Amino acid sequence: MSERAGPYNQPQTMCPAFGSLRVGLRMRRTATVAVGSACCVYGLSFTGHFYGARRSIGYVPFDSESLVTGGLFEDVHQAVYELADPQHYDAIVVVNLCVPSASGVPLRLLPESINGVRVLPIDVPGFAVTTHAEAKDKLAAAMLKYARAEAESGPVKAPRSGRSQMPVVTLLGEMFPGDAVSIGRMLEPMGLAVGQVVPTREWRELYAALDCRVAAAIHPHYTATIAELEAAGRSAVPSAPVGREGTEAWLEAVGSACGVSSEAIEAAKAAALPAVEKAIAAAPIKGKVTISGYEGSELLVARLLVECGAEVCSVNTALPHTPWSEPDRKWLEDLGIQVRFRATLKDESAAIDRHKPDLAIGTTPLAQRAKERAIPGLYFTNLISARPLMGTAGPGSLAHVINAAIGYKERCNIMNDFFSGVGQGSTAGIWPQIPHAPSAHVNPAASLAAEETGKGEGN
Ligand code: SF4
User: In this protein, which residues make up the domain named Nitrogenase/oxidoreductase component (predicted)?
Assistant: First the structure.
């Protein structure tokens, strides 16, 4: 763990509430209402639509008076009542942002349901929920808790796809859609099937998610969600079927958690591992790589890259260490690879400077810093975590994008030479002294500054 200089030396992440909003916006028949400052909601709405939200985000504005008099709570109450039409919605998610959360606006006092529409208020202030990935867990857990109470009190709907005839494994964490299919194929020899992926895409899928034999913590930060599953009597297994060693360990863990015979576990391994080995052999990666991100799959990506031959120097994640990231941490650290949880941009930049990799994978500012040093950089969220990782599809998918990026080194050198000096010194937009104007033309900024100080260029 890194030393913390102060409260703002936190992992870099977009507004954490985005995670909750994204979960709500991707669910059918679910309305999402944000309660917070207009500038926050503008940014969240922009990002939500950039990432393909298909419906509007509700917003309840406030001012100082409505915040302190309780008027804001009344306004939220009214907005939720007006939205609660069971013809259109199963649930309304109300996301409390920083200012109303800090001011204690008591959204928990909203009714649990209105006209049969479930109301789920959650507080997701940036000062308490560290990353947007953990905010996804927060809403997923709130939904599971609600759904569990419903399932315990009477019959509930089956998912649209129907109930599986085989015992199922619920998968935790957003993943490439093909990964769930790959995992399903690997489970078949053990008489198991893939169940729901949490966060789910529809309310009725929550009941099926709870009705699993075991949950697979593919993304290890879903701790609140796992607590809800445990309350429903389900256990979770860590890690994921990535690479040969990861797949072998994961099949053994799932098989034994589900009480599958050792013969069936061996059959599953025999069916999956040779093909994974072949896929790895066909996808060699040569080069030194540093990895960082805030999605929760950083350690899994690192494992796969190592098995494909990459020299992974360090792995930084904005997420915390949990029991479900432990096998991956141990596997990487046993190879001498430094793993840092709750890493900051400062930690990630230091890793680049220390290791001078052929490729830096990380957040947008990290990829930018790498490129400033003529090191190819890739944005983890859009270019790595949105690709298949599991089973036979993972190695080829990653090797394709990683090898192409490593090959950009020469282009980075050319660009670095071309842009040399741009954004530095007087071109950074911050002038500690009046910049020297080029003689060929008048520099308006310098002229203005000179006028303001009463010094003409001839003085
Ligand atoms: S102030 Fe809080 S709610 Fe607003 S953008 Fe920042 S973290 Fe998000």
Answer: 15-404
